[in-house]
Amino acid sequence: RKEVEQDPGPFNVPEGATVAFNCTYSNSASQSFFWYRQDCRKEPKLLMSVYSSGNEDGRFTAQLNRASQYISLLIRDSKLSDSATYLCVVRNSGNTPLVFGKGTRLSVIA
Amino acid sequence: EPEVTQTPSHQVTQMGQEVILRCVPISNHLYFYWYRQILGQKVEFLVSFYNNEISEKSEIFDDQFSVERPDGSNFTLKIRSTKLEDSAMYFCASRTGTSTDTQYFGPGTRLTVL
Hints:
Chain A is mainly β.
């Protein structure tokens, strides 16, 4: 079983749409969870950390369900500039390396 | 805003040649990492470095790879004898070292092995 699994997409949505991405992770002892964004041939950039209580940053909302080992990202009012690959990332403990999912590709269309 | 820098941005080499990829982590960061991403695949961990020694490495990081922090600012990844399958984007990352901090990635070096 892969450590971090994501639906690869692509998700093609019109501007203004709401889109949701899901992710599951296999290590129940994982401690930290993140969503990164990666543009084509660029480095991953942190979009937001994910907390057990859920958290929101503008149009972006992240949720974590530890019991189901499931992480989600919701993007409201999609913009053309949101087009990118969204990476679900897990860290198993404080100083261990990040474990990446393969990413979900989003295309926002005018 | 401080950032991780990497040089070169693109390196083309012949199979069997040695390459050195360079990184300058953010200045007050203590943990350094190399990751790679083969085209179309996920980002994979190679090695982490703390207190002037390797703290963890993946099965990808075999004897052909080495890392070094030759001075107070640079962090290098050396591939001794490159193979075609080493062609990938190589990302350097750094973090401060607190339990809740995040890793900041450099722009990457695209390595092409011919």
